[in-house]
Amino acid sequence: MRIQVLAVVGTLAIGVSGLSQSSKTISGFVSDSQCGATHSSASDSATKCVKGCLKHGGEPVVVSDGKVYHLKGKTDAVREFAGQDVTVKGTIDGDTLTVEWVAAKS
């Protein structure tokens, strides 16, 4: 009985800690998983490279302040901004950004 109670309490604690993540808005550059932070700002050559890597199987990533965020959530929306500066809203857990929305940086 005591083990079951501890298991339930542990599960509840893990569930509650997941709820504490709040949405954040960051600015960054849409690169790809192959090049990562090699491309961290928009230029014709960076955009061409990122789009080529995405076409050949790379996944979109967001580079912000030198950190590469791997994406979950609305990754197709981010892919549309390949090679561009963006503003992204989502939750961050380590190097993973769960995307809620993305827009071109104005």
Kindly describe this structure.
- This protein has helices spanning 2-19, 44-55, 75-79, and strands spanning 24-32, 60-64, 67-73, 85-93, 96-104.
- The chain has 106 residues and is an alpha+beta fold.
- It has one domain: OB fold (Dihydrolipoamide Acetyltransferase, E2P) (Beta Barrel), CATH 2.40.50.
- β2 (60-64) and β3 (67-73) form a beta hairpin.
- It is globular and about 55 Å long.
- The model is unreliable at 5-9 (pLDDT under 50).
Helix and strand element order: HEHEEHEE
* Physical arrangement of strands within the biggest beta sheet: 1-2-3-5-4
Mean pLDDT metric: 86
Q: Taking Cα atoms only, what radius of gyration do you get, to the nearest Å?
A: 17 Å
The first-to-last residue Cα distance is 58 Å
| Main β-sheet description | 5 strands, mixed, barrel
Helical coverage, percent range? 25-40%
Instruction: Specify the number of helices.
Output: 3
CATH architecture term: Beta Barrel
Count the strands?
A: 5
When the domains are counted, the total is: 1
Detail the poorly predicted runs: 5-9
Offer a quick outline of the entry:
By secondary structure, the protein is of the alpha+beta class. The protein is 33% helix and 37% strand. It has one domain: OB fold (Dihydrolipoamide Acetyltransferase, E2P), CATH 2.40.50.
